[in-house]
Amino acid sequence: MQNETFKPFYLFFITYMTQMGIVFFSLPNSIATHFGYNGWIMIIPISVVVCIQIGLIAIIYRFNKGESIFQTIESLNSKAKMIVMPLYISLSIFWSILSVTIAKHYVHVMKFLYFPQTDMQWFVLLTLILTFYLVTRGIITIVHITTIFFFLSAPIIFLLFYFVPDFSFLQFSTFLFNENTDFYGGIIEVYTAFLGFEVILFMFPYISKEKSGFKYVFWGHLYTSFVYLIVTIFCYGFNSIQQLTRQVYPVVTLMKYIEFEFIERLDSIIFILFYLKVLITITMYVWISLITLKRVVKWSDNLIVFVLLAVGYLATLPFVTKKESISLLSALTNVQLFISVILPLLLLMIIFKKRRSNG
Amino acid sequence: MARILMISLILLMQSGCMDQKIVEELGFIHTIGYESIEEGENIGKLKVTVSFPIAETLEQQTNTTVVDTPRESMLFLNQKTDKNLVLGQVRSILIGEKLAEKGVWDLIDTFYRDPVLRPTVKLSLVKGSPQQMLSKDYPNYQMVDTVIEELLTKEARLNTIPEMDIHKFAKDYLDDAIDPIAPIILQSEDGIMSEGIGLFRDDQLVTSLPEIKSRVFFLLTGEFKEGKLLIKTNKEENVLFSFLKNKRSIKVAINNNQDIDVNLSIELKGFLLEYQGKKDINNEKQMAEMEGDIQEYIENQIKEILEIMKEHKIDNLGIGKYIKRKMDYQTWKNLDWPKSIDRINIHPTVTVTIIDTGLVK
Amino acid sequence: MMYINKNLSEQLKGRFDDCDDLVTKTFPELEIEVLFFGHLVGEEELRNNIIQPFSNIKIDEVNNILRRKEFKEEEDLNSMANGILEGKALVIFKNTLAYTVDIYVPKTRSVSAAEIETVIVGPKEAFIEDIGTNLSMIRRRIKSDRLKVLSYKIGTLTQTKMYLLYIEGITSSVLVKELQEKISEIDIKGINDLNQLVQYLDKKPLSIFPQYFTTERPDVSTSKLLEGRVICLLDGSPYSLSTPTSFFEFFQSPDDYNQRWILGTLSRALRFAALAITLFASAFYVAVSMFQYEIIPVKLLHEFIKSRSDVPFNPLIEALIIESIIELLREAGARLPSKIGQTIGIVGGIVIGTAAVEAGFSSNILIIVVSISAISSFVVPHIIMTASLRIARFIFIILASIAGFFGIIFGFIILLIHLCSLKNMGEYYFKPIAPLSLKDLKDTIIRAPYQFFKK
């Protein structure tokens, strides 16, 4: 990996692009199903919880003074490196399986919508090839590509203006959370939509040191929350609540509605532009998988990434149907959620212990 | 980079171009018509008609088949043509009246599920047989399906029929506070014409509103940006009120004893350009009287519409949405709208202003 | 120090044996022999520096003349021969002493207007083949002693002169050193043109994008120097190269700077739109007609299928055929003398296009798409980039035929990753988009008024 650093300004793009992923398409539907009437409100408290999480990471960053968290863990005591090695390996493999599962899920939706006959494996393999290419170029290239992708896919939000005439506040009614199911399961699901911020933990040594550089992560998260909120509100206003609970991908239906003079059915273009966002999410997880494994083995980057992707691909090969795919994905994201909560706390404990022992 | 591209190109070639849909090999179905068969040997079955343009000549081809369920129809229809029929460009669905009376949700749901179809597919009811409408040779038009689609769009803009697509219909059907509506078209001697609005209870067609009432209907549902209203006052006058603009507001008041009062007020402004009668257009006092007459006329029309709604226990105006806002969840559920529509009192008020009366004194 | 060189004249003539173009002029009473290539020297210079001084003098006055500053003493046989090859005249005195006089006047064309990089508003001069004239054009524009010129010779046989220019204080010395190293690594027999030199210096020959910026305009070279880049001039080549390069340099034209900012910005915006069109237009057509037909609005659909129904091939083959025809026309137009070239342009464009549609070879919508994308490729100011874009366009067409829009996005991502990871002499190729530098964006995407440029 390069020894170059990038400016913290890029953290905004990284945070937003990694957080925004496949959950977004079905987000209004899960909110409507789990929270019922006016369920979009729940985005706000969950976003605040994630903000607190990011705050923890910011504290770790400040105490760490920019050194890698691996060093923090390993400098705990002399035997620490031995102990954590199996942990690194399992985390690394877990993250590569998670990435491939995310890829598979997106490909599944894309295949279902636009390429029904084609075998899913080819798209998965192509995605993995792109991931390989991108990850092996190094974090700096990944960061730059993230920025470019952001400017390519972000203007889609302006298309929401198309729906302003059809939007009706009447649809909202004054009920709150009626007709909900599985409220707490819904909270977990919406929280997983915000996952992605934890990869910032692994980026500490690559961020160039600037005063209050970490605020860009907060801005990125706020922007993600904003996008989720506004799209969900539009979905609530555009569809009746019962309709929203029936649509599996309300965002896709929303996009299908757009018609212009010279072009229609923009959803095919927009959905495939979304591929850029999903690719970044996958890339970031493969990248943290890479640098975790690098603490253990001394292979070349290309070899490690190839092995990780191959392992992930073979591990997810048996999951084909939609149900299997979704259950695998939710299992993995729940584990990732757990990791995203535990890991910062663990690091904080280690830091405080070090501080105490240093006097 | 070159290596990556090479490998991926080879992989891509293998994946095959299985999903290729080459444009000239496809039959882009433009309109689908459904009707139920009422007599003969196939009674109770569904007749499905599709029409699509032929690439080489740009004429229209129409095919029909008889099936049990709508989902089978594509299979059989494909057997009758050399083109590969696709649904990606379907623009409108025609449903025969008799079929609509039995219930349309099954059909609509099929369309709603399919990712290939666009949610903006227009929906309309046909008085008569969609198959006849689509397959007849019209002297004035070459391709009927385009004509139908444009007629629906234009008349909706002039507020004589609603603009109904699958998405809106599903939205209204699934919403417990409103019942859906649909435009009605029929075959005239030399063409197609729009007739009025069909009112549904859930997904079954119950009744319809003819021309004049349907225009007044639109005054009630929201903003009227274009259109004219022909008014025959009881003083044997004919008034054409044009370039209308209206503002509608609904206020709901719930009294303690569960009585619901709905105040439906409409403010209507327009130009009076055609008048046939004894009044003098330039006399201000007479114009004020005229405004009063028009008001009365419209109020009567509204009352008649409300009567129809109460009679069939349907709410196509969406009054339920306003009532819903004023209640809590349990009370709303207990109300069991719109079956309890005759419990509410609706007071319509109409205010009419004539802005101008034309160029000549 | 003089050491005895026996019989210089014989030795030198022996080296230039069978070089019948070597001219020998003798002043036998002065024991002076002058060797030079008649076609390399200027007549006036010859007269003033050689013939006049050595006529009508006596032998003891020769030393006075030889002490003049234009006469440089040479002691090494190689440098004497090189001197003659470079157009100097070698004066051999008493067959033991040798002096060179520089009377080199190359016969080249005069400075004319730029033919390839034309500009609407601005100077019209272009470089010519003589390196001296080219250097003078740059020196004229930057009258500063901080403009440094380093001289090299490339090619063991051709001994082509090369100048490396930079401005001390603006250009980083690391850059200069790196370039010097690269030049010293070149080991070839000969070189003809700067564009060949560029390929020898290239570290990433496999990339389809140009790694060095070449131009035939001195004003462009001057602005590159002022920005802190290094310029190279090669004798015999009417181009200068500049490094480090970035992708967006190829989309700038002096017109942008010479006109008001809003015109400059709009031209730039048009160029980027042209970039997108030339890369994706045909691929978009192929993707839509083979995979995503639902994008087409109804009225266009009828025209579309009608025009396609006459064509026996599938859209991919059709697109490739028409694109290849355009490429053939382009190559042919470049080789033909100008008068015939114009006719062929009209014949090719109008007649072949119309005939192709009527014969059922292609649909008229595709002809429009392909011609617009061809025209867009000419909007890019530097043709080197155009060539790369043409290659990319073909790849996109093939990708579109395999996987529709997904294929296009796939190719696009690979392209972007490649561009973003390219580094050129330590600087990123895709600056200022990656790394994002807002102040450099002022001059790339738009052209902000000069008041906003920092000094």
Report on the structure:
The complex is a heterotrimer of chains A (359), B (361) and C (455). Chain A is an all-alpha fold. Chain A has one domain (8-338): Hydantoin permease (Orthogonal Bundle). Helices cover 68% and strands 0% of the residues of chain A. Chain A is globular, with a radius of gyration of 21 Å. The mean pLDDT of chain A is 84. With 361 residues, chain B is α/β, with parallel strands linked by helices. In chain B, 33% of the residues lie in helices and 32% in strands. In chain B, the strands form three sheets. An eight-stranded mixed beta sheet of chain B has the order 4-3-2-6-7-8-9-10. In chain B, strands 11-12-13-14 form a four-stranded mixed beta sheet, sandwiched between helices. The longest helix of chain B is centred in the last third of the chain and has 29 residues, at 284-312. The model of chain B has no long low-confidence stretch (mean pLDDT 81). Chain C has 455 residues and is α+β, with helices and mostly antiparallel strands. Chain C has helices at 8-15, 43-54, 62-66, 77-85, 131-141, 173-184, 194-201, 218-226, 254-258, 261-290, 298-309, 315-335, 338-359, 364-379, 383-421, 438-441; strands at residues 22-27, 32-37, 72-74, 88-93, 97-102, 147-154, 160-167, 213-215, 230-234, 240-243, 423-424, 427-428. In chain C, a hairpin with a 2-residue loop joins strand 11 (423-424) and strand 12 (427-428). In chain C, helix 10 crosses helix 15 (383-421) and helix 12 (315-335) packs across helix 14. The mean pLDDT of chain C is 83. Chains in contact: A-B, A-C, B-C. At the A-B interface, helix 5, helix 6, helix 10 and helix 11 of A face helix 1, helix 7 and helix 10 of B.
The level of helicity of chain C is: 40-55%
| Share of helical residues of chain A | 55-70%
The tally of helices of chain A reads 14
* Shape annotation of chain C: elongated
**DSSP strand content of chain C:** 5-15%
